[in-house]
């Protein structure tokens, strides 16, 4: 290929790329403008239709500022931020309610109040979103129950659909006045456009092309003018028949920006709409997070959600300066620009340019557009939401959750939108309480026959505790203790008292309880009275001091309950009390072996193999992580083993009484020490050196080989089990 041919081909490629970019920018602008106009007509429909011209001007200017600014701050620079249907429908409900009680002769004041309400809502939503992003609080929006979100969006879809029909008819449509809509002359005004919107919604399920909506709207527009031409109807006649969006004043919408929009507003009416403002702010945050997640999936890249929240905040504050509606990321427009080659902030700037051009020059153009075109867009959005949440995602819900979605939708259709949202949240809270109350707060139930303290005891003591341990029941709790779960605990203990006639002690451990409410403290007082009536001693371990004080207020002055800091403290106390009742018995076999060991240690020939060690209180015998081949036998005193944690105090994992071996795992397993061992009181031990012991024996003696093999494997198993239990506990 010659240099000239290559240059020509390069020029053609550049021209094609430029034309493709221009076409992409044009489609992006058209799509954004279509949505902005559609959402505006939702707010200024029915009795507010005379205010549509001013509303369009403010919406277009605000959207231009929002789109132009937002793209510079999102984690994906090609993001388009513009007004959204969900926030628009909430504002529409509030504006409609405001208009119902407004004096007829104060239309200018009504327009100013609605305009300021929208601007204040947008600014507040932006401020809240920015604050959530700065404080990294986006996760809080995740606490809204999923069925409530689904029901709210389904209700939004219903209101969008009825709003579309109302826009076509020039009045408000509710579930109570559907019958007149079925009259033949009325059907022709709204049904074709709704069918077009429904066709787009259905087609989008199989064809994900971003060109689908602009293409169908272009065909619908061409079809509309073809019908006008075929019937001999001109634009003036179409306007008189209310088929067009206008009429608007010739020129642009610049004239709508007058000081009266600020000074004629009623601040008290805006203040009374505070619930609406807060709801829209919450929806803006939630929409930002949901759409960011959708963009992550579509773009196959991670986005910075906190940065996107801040970007939404900045974009909304910019949009509020122009009087625009609240908004967040637009997924279709963003993907359209990205797929058609628009890079960086060009999609947002293209959308801004489209809104600004229509604001300045487009009033005449919009006057000639059929209102049905925007009816189709709104109907498409509404039906898409209904299909999504009533059909497509139904399998994501349980039967109860899906019933909640239907409840919210039914209340929104029959009573009101805000009432539906409130009932949905209350119903979700009630379902949560019922479901949570069914969760077994008792993590583990046992008796002292199987659940022991960390004290290492000899076989005789262990055997005796196994015999009498059923006299002490232990309930280890977890989770949150409130009136539902606390009452279930009372019933559980009551059943145990009825079943076990020999029961003398009940231990309730709160180490893994995250919190208690006042009703839980009352239930614990009731539990105390039950145990007292059955002559059973009640012991609480790990109960916070503040809750202990609250408990005593409900339990009364005659309460006999005991309190310990830890469950191990309670178990040690019970073991000691039960062991004090042990009758004299035959000597323990292990005790006999200990006597033999002490006797050996006294012989001079074994002095290098058995050495006496004396420790004072607090002195360390073994350090966690240290390497050594020594084990010890405690002769007198008391020792404890504790494991260090990365954060917090060490955790005690074992306590040793006279006769207990110490360090045998590392002795046989040849591993580093898994815990630090120190004296709890003055103690005397016998130290056994493994290497010297092996040198003195016969390495080839069969008994020695077998015993050593078994000891090593048992030590390693015990070491692994200890590590698993330690990790699970921490």
Number of helices: 27
Biggest sheet architecture: 7 strands, mixed
| Amount of helix | 55-70%
Could you tell me the strand content as a percent range? 5-15%
Total number of strands: 14
Q: Which features would summarize this protein structure in a list?
A:
alpha/beta, 27 helices, 7-stranded mixed β-sheet, Jelly Rolls, elongated, 14 strands, 730 residues, Transcription Regulator spoIIAA, 5-stranded mixed β-sheet
Give a verbal description of the structure:
The chain is α/β, with parallel strands linked by helices and 730 residues long. It has 3 domains: 393 residues, no CATH class; 138 residues, Transcription Regulator spoIIAA (2-Layer Sandwich); 140 residues, Jelly Rolls, CATH 2.60.120. Helix content is 60%, strand content 12%. It contains 27 helices and 14 strands. The strands form 3 sheets. Strands 4, 9, 10, 11, 12, 13 and 14 form a 7-stranded mixed beta sheet that branches. The protein has a 5-stranded mixed beta sheet with strand order 3-5-6-7-8, with helices on both faces. A two-stranded antiparallel sheet has the order 1-2. Strand 11 and strand 12 form a beta hairpin. It is elongated and about 125 Å long. The two termini are 71 Å apart. The model has no long low-confidence stretch (mean pLDDT 83).
């Amino acid at each position: 290929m010659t240099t000239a041919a290559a240059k020509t081909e390069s020029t053609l490629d550049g021209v094609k790329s430029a034309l493709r970019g221009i076409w992409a920018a044009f489609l992006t602008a058209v799509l954004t403008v279509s949505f902005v106009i559609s959402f505006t007509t939702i707010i200024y429909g029915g009795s507010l239709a005379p205010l549509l011209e001013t509303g369009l001007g403010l919406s277009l200017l605000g959207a231009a500022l929002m789109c132009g600014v937002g793209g510079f701050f999102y984690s994906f620079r090609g993001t388009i931020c513009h007004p959204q249907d969900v926030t628009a429908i909430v504002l529409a409900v509030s504006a409609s309610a405001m208009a119902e009680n407004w004096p007829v002769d104060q239309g200018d004041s009504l327009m100013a109040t609605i305009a300021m309400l929208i601007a204040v809502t947008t600014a507040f939503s932006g401020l809240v979103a920015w604050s959530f992003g700065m404080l990294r609080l986006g996760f809080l929006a995740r606490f809204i129950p999923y069925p409530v979100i689904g029901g709210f969006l389904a209700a939004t879809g219903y209101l969008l659909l009825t709003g579309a029909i109302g826009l076509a008819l020039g009045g408000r449509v509710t579930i109570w006045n559907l019958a007149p809509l079925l009259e033949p002359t009325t059907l022709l005004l709204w049904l074709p456009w709704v069918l077009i919107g429904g066709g787009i919604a259905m087609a989008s399920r199989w064809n994900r092309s971003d060109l689908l909506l602009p293409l169908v709207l272009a065909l619908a527009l061409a079809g509309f003018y073809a019908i006008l031409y075929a019937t001999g109807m001109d634009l003036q006649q179409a306007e008189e028949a209310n088929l067009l969006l206008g009429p608007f004043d010739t020129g642009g919408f610049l004239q709508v920006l007058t000081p009266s929009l600020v000074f004629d507003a009623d601040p008290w009416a805006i203040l009374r709409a505070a619930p609406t403002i807060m709801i829209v702010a919450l929806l803006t945050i939630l929409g930002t997070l949901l759409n960011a997640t959708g963009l992550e999936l579509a773009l196959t890249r991670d986005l910075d959600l906190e940065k996107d929240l801040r970007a939404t905040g900045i974009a909304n504050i910019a949009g509020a300066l122009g009087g625009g509606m609240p908004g967040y990321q637009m997924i279709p427009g963003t993907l359209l620009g990205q797929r058609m080659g628009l890079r960086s902030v060009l999609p947002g700037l293209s959308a801004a340019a489209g809104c600004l051009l229509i604001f300045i020059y487009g009033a005449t153009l919009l006057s000639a557009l059929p209102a049905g075109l925007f009816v189709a867009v709104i109907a498409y959005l509404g039906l898409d939401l209904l299909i999504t949440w009533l059909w497509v995602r139904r399998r994501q819900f349980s039967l109860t959750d899906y019933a909640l979605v239907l409840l919210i939708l039914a209340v929104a259709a029959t009573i009101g939108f805000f009432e539906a949202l409130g009932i949905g949240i209350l119903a979700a809270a009630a379902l949560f309480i019922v479901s949570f109350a069914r969760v077994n707060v008792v993590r583990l139930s046992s008796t002292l026959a199987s659940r022991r303290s960390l004290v290492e005891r000899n076989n005789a003591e262990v055997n005796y505790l196994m015999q009498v341990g059923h006299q002490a029941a232990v309930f280890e709790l977890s989770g949150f203790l409130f009136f539902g779960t606390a009452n279930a605990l009372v019933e559980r203990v009551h059943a145990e008292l009825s079943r076990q006639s020999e029961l003398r002690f009940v231990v309730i451990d709160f180490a893994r309880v995250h919190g208690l409410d006042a009703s839980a403290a009352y239930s614990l007082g009731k539990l105390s009275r039950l145990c007292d009536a059955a002559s059973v001693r009640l012991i609480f371990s790990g109960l916070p001091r503040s809750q202990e004080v609250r408990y005593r207020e409900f339990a009364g002055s005659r309460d006999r309950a005991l309190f310990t800091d830890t469950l191990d403290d309670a178990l040690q106390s019970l073991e000691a009390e039960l062991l004090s009742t042990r009758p004299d018995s035959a000597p323990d076999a292990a005790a006999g072996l200990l006597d033999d060991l002490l006797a050996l240690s006294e012989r001079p020939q074994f002095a290098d193999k058995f050495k006496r060690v004396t420790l004072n209180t607090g002195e360390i015998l073994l350090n966690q992580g240290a390497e050594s081949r020594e084990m010890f036998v405690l002769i007198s005193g008391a020792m404890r083993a504790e494991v260090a944690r990365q954060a917090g105090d060490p955790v005690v994992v074992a306590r040793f009484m006279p006769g207990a071996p110490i360090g045998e795992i590392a002795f046989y397993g040849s591993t580093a020490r898994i815990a630090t061992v120190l004296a709890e009181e003055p103690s005397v031990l016998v130290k056994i050196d493994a290497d010297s012991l092996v040198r003195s024996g016969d390495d080839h003696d069969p008994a020695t080989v077998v015993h050593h093999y078994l000891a090593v494997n048992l030590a390693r198993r015990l070491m692994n089990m200890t590590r698993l239990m330690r990790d699970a506990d921490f």
